[in-house]
Amino acid sequence: MGKTLTNIALIGAAIAVNVVPGVGQAISGAIVGLGGGTFAALGVAQTVVGALQVGLTIAGIQAATGIIMGSPSLPKPDTTSTALKTSRPPRVSGYGISRLYGAYILFETATDGTAVDVYAIHDGQLTEIVRWYLADDAVTLAGNIVQAGVDGRYGSGKLRLYWTTGLTPGSPFSAVTAKLPGIWTANHRGDGVVLAALLSTPVKSEDFLDIYPNGVPVASMVAKWQKCPDLWAADPTDESQWTWTENCIRHLAHYLLVREGADYATKIAPTLAYWRAAQDVCDEDIALKAGGTEKRWRSCLSHTHTQKHGDIKAAMLATCDGWMAPRADGALVVYAGKYYAPTVSIGSDEIVAYEWNGVGVDDDEAVNYITCSYVSADHDYNTVECDPWTDEDDISRRGQELTESLDPQVPSWGQVRRLAKRRMQRANALYRGTVTTNVAGRKVRGQRYINLHIEEAGSVFYSGPAEITAITRNMQTGGVTFSWVAASPNIDAWNPATEEGSPAASGDRVAPQPLTAPAITSATPELSADGVTAQIRMIVSGPDREDLTWFLRWKLSSETIWNEAQNGDVDPGASVELLSTLVPTNSSIDVAVSYQVGDGRVSPWSATETVSTSTATLAPLPPTDFSAIGGAGEANLSWRNPSATFAFIRVYRGPTADFGDASLISGDIVGGLGEVMSLDDTGLSASTYYYFLRSFNASAIPSSVVGPQSAVVT
Questions:
Q1: How many domains are there within the chain?
Q2: DSSP element (H, E) containing 610
Q3: What is d(CA 620, CA 40) in angstroms, rounded to the nearest whole number?
Q4: Contact at 8 Å (CB) between 5 and 31?
Q5: Are residues 356 and 459 in the same domain?
Q6: For site-directed labelling of 264, which of 140, 321, 460, 675 has its Cα 20 to 30 A away?
Q7: DSSP code string of 666-684
Q8: SS3 of the chain: helix, strand, coil, percent, to 5
């Protein structure tokens, strides 16, 4: 091998002098290294080879044959989590089952106050709608009408949803045209695009938070998205035979053919056996610890049409730990994540140079803690974390957690943990390196796993299965240069009971419970002393909460219009006391109460109670301005009638200042409210007389006694 390295160094020196300026210092180092021993020569010579490869690529002498491996770093479209308002939103397409919001293409208010929102959600025809969401609430539809939630939100037929399926030609929304004529017409079809329209009817301000507790909601849909080719079909390009699937490899084939425009005849057909095998790997059943099975590799990936093809393909391969590379003829070889026994071997007959690392993985590159995320149907199709994949022994040995996040767009926590297991094995493999081959080594092209044997001077540095992670043609040797990492034949061993882990906790978000209606325990009229005004005092039972705001409404029993008012600060308790605003007297009054909690929700109104504000039982005010003046044989009396609840006056006379000694001397004296009245008491003998007055209401209920007023008669 030392001779081989010497030859490489000499060839490299010649190329460096004639082709690649600026690497003389590196070559000098190589020559010194060769003189110093095999190990030094190996490291420095490989530095030269690395430098030469960069220079040769720049010079256009070396051609690349790149491998695409899974990389979950593709950002999800913004519309996986929110709706967009932008003048030129990117198109979005999806695979499998996922939840997508849309980009607003119309948001307007109709003349009748209806809020009209139209969204462009998905480019391409969907297969089936699974469910609808308004904000974070899953809703059900009866036709196009949104049904009320458990707490009444979205109720009373106030919201309607309309949609298209992405067909070409599309169907215009007649309901939108009816609300916004001239703005939305029959020509607004949205050909080839899934559209959704939400019509939100206006409501009274007091009902707004009941129907729209979070404001006018944003719609989103969960759907089975695009149909994909089946690589086992007689003609995978026959779109009429495409079906919906969660199979990652079928998604990749669809993307290549439809989005990237790859030629099936040259890119896929020559390697169809590889594609079919990879498709079958994805569809293999994996046992679950709860019983039953799931498919090995599923995807729910969505992407924008502005993201790079390479990034999207890498993200698709990440969902199945996939591997894809072109063969010499340009056809694409693809593997899903499953180890297979290598059929190609590389050894001393093919190896020209190598770089070998077998002394462990530095902390900068090792991984012993992978945070795992997946898209959970149990969490409204949001991305959540499940149990991480960890190597506790390595954490203990290194004394630290070397963390990495894994966030592929997959619908299963077990799947993301299987991916994490493969990721950690690859990152922490003890043996890895780079190999440059002669022409015979070209046979590794299109192979993910090979048998690799590295031996020098009788010392075996590595012998076993290896995974090729990168490869380039080497014009200098006529072969290839590839990076490799030791592969584990046992990587696919899986014990669901110990390795599947647990999903993200569900049910940790407490759904708002419907508010119960309060109850009126008692309702009593409180009349003013003059009987002109009245209020109603109520004892009400309800929740004992600090955040309650109470509302009271009343109306005449014969009418339909309620008068509502908010009560002031009320001390919290299971029973509270409320006082109405002024209500009419001598009327039948209906009253009801409700309360609002701190998050804005309002309870149902209580059962209606009816209260009479009759003044029939209210004692009238006493008369005023009472006077008595004596004369010859008579006394002249004068007073002012009460101003309310008054029917008549009675006059009493007695020999003493004690009302108990007095006798009634008049009949029922009728007069106007507040009228000044008089009475002449005649035929009296000379003496001192004492007079008293009392007013009475229509029910003959008396007021307090007024008097005495004395009169001296002569």
A1: 6
A2: strand 609-612
A3: 119
A4: no
A5: yes
A6: 321
A7: S--B---TT-EEEEEEESP
A8: 20, 35, 45
Global pTM value = 0.70
- 492-496: long-range pairs with CB below 8 Å, 24+: 492/338, 492/339, 494/286, 494/287, 494/418, 496/286, 496/287, 496/288, 496/289, 496/414
Half-sphere exposure of 396 (CA within 13 A, CB side): 3
CB neighbour list of residue 191: distance below 8 Å, 6 or more residues apart: 167, 168, 169, 170
Indicate if 304 and 386 belong to the same structural domain: no
Give the Cα separation of 173 and 164 in Å (integer). 9
Q: Which amino acid, one-letter code, is at 603? A: S
What backbone phi and psi angles, to 5 degrees, belong to 245?
Answer: -160, 160
Give phi and psi for 411, each to the nearest 5: -100, 15
For tokens 């419970």, what's the residue? 513
Residue whose tokens read 């299109």: 446
The two beta strands, 549-556 and 480-486, are: unpaired
Helix (H), strand (E) at residue 424: helix 413-428
Beta-bridge partner residues of 45:
none
**pLDDT value at residue 214:** 84
3-state secondary structure of 39: helix
Q: Is the same domain home to 236 and 174?
A: no
Orientation angle between helical segments 2-18 and 24-36, nearest 10 degrees:
160
Q: What distance in Å separates the CA atoms of residue 592 and residue 581, rounded to the nearest whole number?
A: 13
Q: How far apart are CA 573 and CA 518, in angstroms?
A: 12
pLDDT at 66: 64
Residue 96, C-beta contacts closer than 8 angstroms, at least 6 positions apart: 224, 225, 245, 246, 251, 298, 299, 300, 301, 411
Is the same domain home to 221 and 295? no
How far apart CA 408 and CA 91 sit, in angstroms, is 21
Strand partners, 102: none
Mean pLDDT by 10 residues, the chain (714 residues): 32 34 33 33 36 30 54 78 89 97 95 96 97 95 94 89 96 95 93 97 87 90 98 97 98 98 98 98 95 97 96 96 93 97 97 91 91 96 94 90 95 97 94 97 96 95 96 95 95 90 77 84 86 88 88 88 80 85 91 87 89 85 92 92 87 92 91 90 92 90 90 90
Phi/psi-derived region of residue 218, left when phi > 0, alpha when psi is between -120 and 50, beta in every other case: beta
Q: Long-range contacts: 268-271, Cβ < 8 Å, 24+?
A: 268/231, 268/236, 268/331, 268/332, 269/331, 270/327, 270/329, 270/331, 271/327, 271/331, 271/332, 271/333, 271/334, 271/446
Domain coverage including residue 122: 92-228
Strands 588-596 and 609-612 come out as antiparallel
CA angle 436-437-442, nearest 5°? Answer: 120
Token couple for 616 = 């029939």
Domain CATH code at residue 641: 2.60.40.10
- Separation CA 130–CA 320 (nearest Å): 24
Strand 534-541, strand 519-527: pairing:
antiparallel
Q: Do both 536 and 673 map to the same domain?
A: no
DSSP codes joined into one string, 483-505: EEEE--TTTT---HHHHS-----
Per the CB < 8 A criterion, the answer to whether 680 and 633 are in contact is no
- The pairing of beta strand 563-566 with beta strand 549-556: antiparallel
> Under a CB-based contact definition with an 8 Å cutoff, are residues 311 and 255 in contact?
no
Identity at 102, one-letter amino acid code: G
Tokens (6 digits) for 218: 């944003």
pLDDT at res. 563: 87
Q: What are residue 177's phi and psi, to 5 degrees? A: -60, -40
